[in-house]
Design goal:
Elements: E1 8-11, H1 18-29, E2 35-37, E3 47-51, H2 61-72, E4 76-80, H3 87-94, E5 98-100, H4 105-112, E6 123-127, E7 130-133, E8 163-165, E9 168-169, H5 180-184, E10 189-190, H6 193-205, E11 211-213, H7 230-244, E12 249-250, H8 261-270, E13 274-280, H9 284-289, H10 296-308, E14 312-319, H11 326-339, E15 343-348, H12 356-363, H13 386-401, H14 410-437
Parallel strand pairs: 1-2, 1-3, 3-4, 4-5, 8-11, 11-12, 13-14, 14-15
Antiparallel strand pairs: 5-6, 6-7, 9-10
Helix pairs in contact: 1-4, 6-7, 7-8, 11-13, 13-14
Bound molecules: iron/sulfur cluster.
Residues 171, 173, 175, 178, 180-181, 216-217, 255, 278 line the site of iron/sulfur cluster.
């Protein structure tokens, strides 16, 4: 048995993530008094749980230094969060004592109750003869203690909300770029409504004015076999909006094939009235390569339905997916124009560890990678790669395709250009890391 630690902290860089707050709540439930911070320089103590949500964190000198400092001060550093899908990378780049992989609640309890690493589920750690990975299992009962909510949560702003909350886990989808079905499985496991509402009240009491529902599958709460449970979803939104007020709730992400009239009525009546669809591409070929499983006509219907119910449709698009050719990209631009969405989010395909996209990218030759190929077309003078140029072009195009077209001014033009360049650079760095640890 390990000795009982006296000081425990939880941290996440720059944000109080829901995962970090959840971990804090589980630790407190084991009889400790953890504190939570989003300022890494404040992390000191005998045991530190660090929640990392971006693969880029593995390359961040400030985070590397934080882990080194914690250990130098005699602390134990345990890393979890979305980066844990690539435990070899986490151990190789940051050298923490332990990585908690995937759903971490059982592992956190095990460690806090004095358990040893080799007996801890969902973990990876370095041993003399290499990396040890323990049994992976999913949490069966999504019944959790209240999260550890910091006093200044009200100062946080994540796209207008102070926090996200979790209502269920899993997605029956298979999108090749997404971690959700790999980490949480394809079967939906839902939390009890009363527990969710208790949590909402606790967040509100601490100063949260607007909250959003986590994940790409809002309306799948209490669904079975891909069938939307409209009644359960309506009760969920009504319950949350009765506490927060309808203008302070957002349920941004819903699959285009998981909409019913009742769902749309509930979104209109109980939320800020927006839905963000993961549209990704206007090319059926790319939709198939992504294993999106939602035909483009279904997206057209969903956008049309939103407008009938007074809900504002928005969408995310991914460009630079392996196999995307000029005509596929043009099909995406055409679809964007046809749908005339109220808002658009554009990203270059990011190979997140553990996803089919990451495997595909690792198998490909670097010179076939759109994020590396120099762009020679319309924006040649801007020295972009092909994926960057496509992302930049889509951002500009989105402005012109709004219901009321927007002329892109110089400042916005510069913001889009910087954003496209940054995404390209970030993805090249992530890809380099993936190829190093998971050669195809
Ligand atoms: S529908 Fe959304 S959450 Fe589900 S697999 Fe696709 S991207 Fe992920």
């Amino acid at each position: 048995m390990k000795h009982r630690v006296s000081s425990v902290m939880v941290g996440a860089p720059g944000l109080y993530t829901y995962g970090a707050m959840r971990v804090g709540g589980v630790i407190r439930d084991t009889g400790f008094h953890p504190t939570i911070t989003r300022d890494l320089s404040r992390l000191h103590g005998e045991r530190i749980f660090l929640s990392l949500y971006s693969t880029l964190h593995l390359l961040d000198p400030a985070i590397k230094e934080t882990v080194r400092r914690i250990q130098h001060e005699g602390g134990e550093c345990i890393i979890g969060g979305p980066v844990s899908s690539g435990p070899d990378m986490v151990l190789g780049e940051l050298h923490p004592d332990l990585v908690i992989c995937g759903e971490g609640e059982d592992a956190v309890r095990h460690i806090m109750n004095g358990g040893e690493y080799p007996d801890c589920p969902n973990c990876a750690f370095s041993a003399d003869d290499g990396i040890v990975k323990t049994e992976q299992r999913r949490v069966q009962d999504l019944s959790f203690p209240l999260p550890l909510i910091p006093d200044d949560i009200g100062t946080q702003d994540i796209r207008g909300a102070q926090t996200y909350i979790e209502t269920h886990r899993g997605c029956f989808g298979r999108c090749g770029f997404c971690q959700v079905p790999r980490v949480f499985g394809r079967k939906i496991r839902s939390r009890e409504l009363e527990e969710i509402l208790r949590e909402v009240r606790a967040f509100q009491k601490k100063g949260v004015r607007r909250l959003a529902l986590i994940g790409g599958t809002g309306s799948l709460y209490r669904s079975r076999d891909g069938e939307v449970n409209s009644g359960a979803f309506i009760s969920l939104l009504e319950g949350i909006s009765s506490i927060m007020g309808p203008k302070n709730v957002s349920c941004p992400d819903i699959r285009a094939d998981c909409l019913t009239d009742e769902v749309l009525e509930a979104v209109h009546a109980n939320t800020i009235g927006w839905i963000f669809f993961g549209i990704e591409s206007g090319s059926e070929k790319i939709i198939d390569l992504m294993q999106k499983g939602i035909p483009i006509d279904k997206v057209r219907d969903a956008v049309e339905k939103c407008r009938q119910f007074g809900v504002r449709p928005a969408g995310s698009f991914i460009t630079g997916y392996p196999g995307e050719e000029d005509e596929d990209f043009q099909a995406t631009k055409d679809l964007m124009e046809e749908l005339s969405l109220d808002d658009v989010f554009v990203s270059i395909a990011e190979p997140i560890p553990s996803t089919p996209l990451a495997e595909e990218v690792c198998k490909r030759m670097p010179e076939d990678d759109l994020v590396r190929i120099p762009h020679t077309g319309e924006y040649a003078g801007l020295h972009l790669t092909e994926a960057e140029a496509r992302a930049f072009d889509l951002m500009l195009h989105a402005d012109m395709c709004r219901p009321v077209p927007r002329i892109t001014q110089d400042t916005q033009y510069r913001i889009y250009l910087d954003e496209a360049r940054k995404q390209g650079s970030d993805i090249r760095n992530v890809t380099r890391l993936l190829r190093q640890y998971y050669p195809g």
